[in-house]
Design a protein that fits this description.
Structural class: mainly alpha
Distance between the termini: 43 Å
Helix content: 55-70%
Protein name: DUF8040 domain-containing protein
Radius of gyration: 20 Å
Strand content: under 5%
Order of helices and strands: HHHH
Organism: Nymphaea colorata (pocket water lily)
Shape: elongated
Length: 67
Amino acid sequence: MFLITLGHDQRNRRTQYDFQHSGQTLSKYFNLILKAILRIAHEYVGRRDDTTPARVRGDPRFFPYFK
């Protein structure tokens, strides 16, 4: 339910209809899962590395993208 709500930008009312649960139940568990993900996010989510690998920079097939 959590992933469908996020992935499809689905509102609580639509999720209630799809899964036949009350809005209170959905809201309660959505928030529990969200809080759990936020607690572990620092272990699994990091900053993006903006450097382009040398083998990509040196390959002429990719040249139009890295002028």
